[in-house]
Amino acid sequence: MAAAALDGPAGPASPAVAELCQNTLETFLEASKLLLTYADNILRNPNDEKYRSIRIGNIAFSTRLLPVRGAVECLFEMGFEEGETHLIFPKKASVEQLQKIRDLIAIERSNRLDGSNKSHEEELSQQSATSTQLPTTQSSNPNGLTQHAGNSQGQPSNLPPAPMTIAAAVILKVLRSNMQHVLVYENLALQEKALACIPVQELKRRSQEKLSRARKLDKGTNISDEDFLLLELLHWFKEEFFQWVNNILCSKCGGQTKSRGEALFPNDDERKWGASRVEDHYCDACQFSNRFPRYNDPEKLLETRRGRCGEWANCFTLCCRAIGFEARYVWDYTDHVWTEVYSPSQQRWLHCDACENACDKPLLYEVGWGKKLSYVIAFSKDEVVDVTWRYSCKHEEVNARRTEIKEEVLREAINGLNKQRQMSLSENRRNELLQRIIVELVEFISPKTPKPGELGGRISGSVAWRVARGEMGVERKETTFIPSENEKISKQLHLCYNIVKDHYIRVSNNNETISGWENGVWKMESMFRKVETDWNMIKFSAPIMIFLVPLKLFWKQN
User: What is the DSSP code (8-state) at residue 156?
Assistant: First the structure.
């Protein structure tokens, strides 16, 4: 019966198990089975690290536990702690506590399976009646304060506050942690260290050359030196400084490794540099396990110069601040991060993705990548801003997906952080930030329509800005192939496209070569050819992997 989890001689009450018991029978049995599996794996294999972590993105966890009332809370009561992407049962956690919660769940499950419990309606009534005799159930609110299920007299309220979901707790935790993290970029000594890595003078020389050419094309441009310097910094960071990591090379034999998908526990040095998770990359050739710490300290990343989008955005944002740009670190709930840089000359924030060498293409993710965005939050030393609407042209769809946290809770949390952070700012600075926010809000509600070939990049900017980002393209006409005499006689037109060399071979016309994929199509919309050089497939070799990513592509036959 539910009372076993709520109170009795077995020991103190378990609010989490009590919450779990309030689900429907089918939901309870499915969730409890998985919870017992997690607990039993640890109890049977206490020294096996792979059983001590649960990936939050795991299908079983995200579909069978995450939506279930009280399920994740049971894991927390067992002793699991929340990591960046995993729930982790640390070595310091009490196995006795794990066993206790496990046994309470097992008793409840057994009672329901053998039919000894009362009907579900009677059970819910009994739980409500017995709750007045129990320690009040607690849940966390955005401010970290305790909320009690009863009223001030200890009696149960008619409408008890719903417990906060794990997703909402994650979002609020991200707000607080990222708001604190971006202050690292303001460390002057760290900025000096970053500047020592950046060839500032060379980047300024390149930017000046391109700015001069752009001004000849658009004499009335309002684009500044800093805007062009930003573009050069992006290009240098991707092509010359930072390296993308899929699987690291074996530190023992230099061969290829494969990630085993298991998180190792970070050692003291790794924790010192913010690595809360360490990937295990195994080499089959020499049977050696290689550690790949996911460092979160930009100072360490200046040294390692490798990682995935988290490391890229972290280090690039530091480099932007070191050069003197106002920069934001941008977090996307659907698992991506990037940077925004403020342009005084254009009086707006520019989207910058160092991984893609992409600037001012905010619709890249929704239109180009097909991401289903919901929450996109930007963090700087002065403010937190919900910038979701900059990155979407499908606001109704996005709004329908924003169900993880109540809008008023998110708004209050952001306003509270901003109020706290801006208390020490001058009145002029606060007014400046207010004016920028007003401009941003207008941008957010303005209709956005991705244009052919843009993938979210603007065509409303000046000619100089669009030329600098390679977005002008060339004026082109629809391609038409007129059969030659030989083709008329053979009644055959044979055209082949070589994706690596990016040219067509007109086999039926003496192997005529036509350069450029765009010169062989009749019509195209939102089409680009991407050359990806980041994926080193074998040692001392960097094969070029090429993709054609079509949205609309047409060949017409008359």
Answer: B
The pairing of beta strand 376-379 with beta strand 327-332:
antiparallel
Place of tokens 């009863």: 150
How far is Cα 510 from Cα 515, in angstroms, rounded to an integer?
Answer: 15
For residues 350 and 263, what is the distance between their CA atoms, to the nearest angstrom?
A: 35
17: left (phi over 0), alpha (psi -120 to 50) or beta: alpha
Global model pTM greater than 0.70: no
Long-range contact pairs involving 123-128 (C-beta distance under 8 Å, separation at least 24): 123/1, 123/2, 123/21, 124/22, 126/1, 126/2, 126/3, 127/2, 127/6, 127/18, 127/21, 127/22, 128/156
Residue of 280, 332, 353, 360 with catalytic role: 353
How many alpha carbons fall within 13 Å on the CB side of residue 227? Answer: 27
Task: Answer whether 205's CB lies under 8 Å from 495's CB.
Answer: no
Per-residue pLDDT of 148-161, as tens digits, reads 333 333 333 333 34
Nearest to 478 by CA among 529, 528, 525: 525
Annotated active-site residue in 197, 253, 309, 393: 309
Query: CA distances (Å), 463 to each of 150, 233, 440, 468, in order?
Result: 63, 21, 22, 9
With 0-12 / 13-18 / 19 or more C-beta atoms within 10 angstroms meaning exposed / middle / buried, residue 299 is middle
Distance CA 182, CA 159 (A): 39
CA distance 72 to 152: 28
Phi/psi at 19 (5° precision): -65, -45
Q: Which of 181, 281, 336, 351 is catalytic?
A: 336
Tens-digit pLDDT profile for residues 463-521: 554 455 443 443 445 677 888 888 888 888 899 988 888 889 999 988 998 888 778 88
3-state secondary structure at position 164 = coil
Give the Cα separation of 244 and 486 in Å (integer). 50
Question: CA nearest 442: which of 344, 343, 349?
Answer: 349
The pair of structure tokens assigned to 40 is: 């039993």
Known catalytic membership, residue 309: yes
